[in-house]
Amino acid sequence: MPLTGAAIALVLAAPAFAQAAKPAPVAELVRAIDIPYQQFRLKNGLRVVVHTDRKAPVVAVSVWYDVGSKHEPKGKTGFAHLFEHLMFNGSENAPGDFFEPLKQVGATDFNGTTYFDRTNYFETVPRAALDRALFLESDRMGWLTGAITQATLDEQRGVVQNEKRQGDNRPYGLIRYKLTEGLFPPDNPYGHTTIGSMADLDAASLADVKGWFRDHYGPNNAVLVLAGDIDVATARPLVEKYFGAIPAGPKSVLPKVDIPTLAAAKSEVMKDRVAAPLVLKAWAIPGLNDADSVPLDVAASVLGGLASSRLQNILVKEEKLAVEVGADSDDFAQVGMFTVNAIVRPGVDPALVSKRLDEIVADLARNGPTADEVQRVLTTSVSQRIGGLESVGGFGGKAVALAEGELYSGDPGFYKKQLAELAAQTPQSVRDAARKWLGRPAYTLTVVPGERAPYDEAKVPPPVKVAPAPELPPKNTRGPIPAAGAVADLSFPRVERTRLANGIELIYANRTTVPITRGVLSFDAGTAADVADKLGTQALTLAMIDEGTAKLDSIKLAEAKERLGLDIYTSSSADRTTLSFRAPSANLDPAVGLWADIARAPSFPESELPRVKNQLTAAIAQELTDPGGITARVLPPVLYGAGNPYAKARGSGDAKAVAGLTRSDLLDFRSAWLRPDKAKIFVVSDRPLAEVKGVLDRAFGDWRATGTGGEKLFREDRSLPAPRVILVDRPDSPQSLISGGLRTAFKGTDDLLPAITVNDALGGDFLGRLNMDLRESKHWSYGVSGNFTRNAFAAPYVVRAPVQADKTGASIAALRDQISAFVTTRPMTQVEFDRAIAGATRSLAGNFETSAAVLAAMQMNDLFRRPDDYYATITQKYRALTRDELNATAQRVIDPARFVWVVVGDAKTVRPQLDSLGLPVEVITAASIAGANEESNNGR
User: Which of 564, 743, 873, 898 is deepest in the core (most CB within 10 A)?
Assistant: First the structure.
């Protein structure tokens, strides 16, 4: 098909500016990373680290225990992780769910994790609620065992086993067991996975778990980090008050760990229900305190971590043997695992890919990386580290960096030593480490399509009637749980609007916490704009957009981004298609230049199109083996109606349609949708608006639209789908993924605050009734949610519940009962109402701590036509809500009888369980939905 005039004009409309600015030196970027701290130790051995950050009135509380799966003896695998769960179920002076008193005060980022080396618990709370957080953490450290009952143990054992099933149920989900067992001997402390075995979890007794606590969870085995609106003078008396009376316990003994070397190369083949073979190679390597740890990190990035990595360039782009590759150096405290992997392109022999992996790794070990490769790794790594330290807590903020350093290396500032070592790396140092450790025999695992071996299920005993455990009253040996003081209203950054020279609107906010700029070029397109008879056109366009420009091919483009520490990524929601960037502000000008080059002058090279199409069709095939991917194809027509533009959201598209797409199709889509008159630019930066606008004007100011843009047509459709169960057969699934969809009359632009707030009590929160019933009461699931899926022109309600396979029918019945009671006999209670309002208003400062969160909020406000100061004034809106208003909203919107339930699971196990539900049941296969474009004709 010849190019249209509009397409030619758009392709040739490259930005008229020079990219002459040089990247900031790595040393300058490293200087931006600083986490000042002070530390002290209590008499009982508790180590305390304090970091002051006054940007928001919140404090991250992070407690790290020196106990992980490496401390577990034979027969007790999974104990550390099981105990992590038990410690969320209340303590002697704070019985009940740990999240309840945290939610009441607006805690954010609260969770816990377990791995080989540690167990950690964390929450970010308003400064006025710090006493409560310290009381709760200290109570479960010193006053826990009296709150652990057999009922609690049985409940959390079931939850953990469903967490295990959920991970195992994914494609390639059993790799972690083979990898660990293949690399480490069984007596090595790192020789089993953190999740443990079903048999050991089954065998855990109440005496076992209480003994485990006494042996490992004393204050002398813990590190407490407080980071945020706090200083050491304030922190010391509070920590003494709450933790000082806890006696020291036995000290965790560091297990003796040898770094194993295989006597000879070892290869295994495993069958799984996957769409494409995967080849993985692994070596045991030293832990993070070893001098070779950092150079091995660099080696992994050179091999498979960069966009321009050797595996990507050779196996994917040049030889076209693989559709996806990766490499990782995962360093733990005492050992590590170095892995390279490739998902094999359909029709290619996995043995050939395995051979090429060996050769590429051997070449790096023999000759080392180039100086430019090392420099690109350093710049990229440091840039990512800067962005990751904007938050004080959570999974990866400043509290984590300090706690890891103290626990693993005896130095909260260990991150600085790692950065200094990173900046000092040379091609020779990386070559020497790779030669030393990757020249040894590798463990190779090849996963091929086929039936899985029989699943090692839990040995569930016959049901026995057990009286429910009584709710234990607080012992009150330490007084009541502290109340939280008043919390100030959110101070949301001022949002400013202006326009570039060509009329593109710029929406800007200033945040100076870290020297990072984030920007989003947002087009009014989204999956709703995909081509109806060629689903996947948008996905392929986005996949090809950074494969080259008028100036740079895909490899040169990737290398240029890496030299700047620049991340550029595409995304699509139902309503918007975005091209985003994140860069050190020191590199803002050249970074925006590259970003604009990709947006304005993508070349969509014909030479790369077949490869990228193969990658996308392989991804579609993988989606059809994944429970979530299958659901994403079946549910949209149910939620919106087959003719609605939102119903086009079928994963990555139709494989047959994608295979037939041409370069002209991509140019036509871009011409219609990815154009300046459909664009807005959102930016959050530490640089002033005038500077940002000047940079953007130079890059985009002369970009003009030509031709006619695309149009999305949303017709009002009052029809409703017939209530039923759609069962998608996925054989050998240890879990079923249940999704319940309900069309509502809402649009995303409506005021949904009452509906979202009342849903906090039903499905919108961990403490919501759906999750508390199926997870905490029945322990049939690892987690259940129900939420409004908010798009500009529709907002259906969707329940998601992965459950153990033998409880599928009972789980749907329980979900229906809970939803029905919520809108009839058991509406939102006053306790639930108070918790929802308090949690929503008090959590605002924590929710918008980072520039990424502010940037997302700016886009949502624009999409849903809300004022830019929406979040600055939302506290008053919450306080104006009433419980009667919320319950009336739920009763008006949620009709339990109108849900359509989609179940992805093993039909031979699940189908007999569905007869008692009183709903029609359709049974289909995953293969039958691969190219389906219409909902079955059961609507009315």
Answer: 564
| Cα distance between residue 925 and residue 921, in whole Å | 13
* Rounded Cα distance, 643 and 717, in Å: 9
Phi-psi region of 651 (alpha: psi -120 to 50; beta: other; left: phi over 0): left
Rounded to the nearest 10 degrees, the angle between the axes of helix 883-893 and helix 830-842 is: 100
Pair 215, 72: CB distance under 8 Å? no
Strands of 332-391, DSSP E:
335-344
**Each residue of 83-136: pLDDT tens digit?**
899 888 899 999 988 999 999 999 999 999 999 999 999 999 999 999 999 999
User: Cα separation of 255 and 117, whole Å?
Assistant: 10
Of 704, 682, 725, 69, nearest in space to 334 by CA: 69
3-state secondary structure of 435: helix
Asked whether 476 and 464 are in contact (CB, 8 A), the reply is: no
* Beta bridge mates, 122: 62, 111
Long-range contacts, 858-863 (Cβ 8 Å, 24+): 858/495, 858/507, 858/509, 858/682, 858/684, 859/520, 859/522, 859/576, 859/682, 861/495, 862/507, 862/522, 862/680, 862/682, 863/575, 863/576, 863/748, 863/792
List the helix and strand counts (H, then E) for the chain: 34, 25
Q: Distance between alpha carbon 694 and the CA centroid of its chain, in Å?
A: 34
Q: Which two tokens stand for residue 347?
A: 């029709």
Residue with tokens 């009590």: 761
* pTM greater than the 0.85 cutoff: yes
Neighbouring CB atoms inside 10 A of 38's CB total: 15
Q: Is the pLDDT of residue 375 over 50?
A: yes
- d(C-alpha 113, C-alpha 573), whole Å: 30
The pLDDT assigned to 13 comes to 37
**Residue 203: C-alpha distances to residues 78, 206, 464, 471, 719 (Å):** 11, 10, 17, 25, 53
* Crossing angle between the packed helical segments 588-600 and 689-700, to the nearest 10 degrees: 40
How far is the C-alpha of 923 from the C-alpha of 925, rounded, in Å? 7
